[in-house]
Amino acid sequence: MFEYMTAQEAAELWGISVRRVQRLCKENRIEGVLNVNRVWLIPKGTEKPLDKRRKSERGGIRE
Prior knowledge:
Blueprint: E1 4-6, H1 7-14, H2 18-26, E2 34-36, E3 39-43
Antiparallel strand pairs: 1-3, 2-3
């Protein structure tokens, strides 16, 4: 049987906000999540997804 953590637990573990974890779940960016009675359950041991919002270049300045 799988063990799960809540969005709150994942947020603390990954160092991001609970709302960001919920959004990642809703966007299917985390594999194996369940939504039970409006509570997101994330399999324990799941790694934080890459942040696609960040760009490889900082500040948009090219040299």
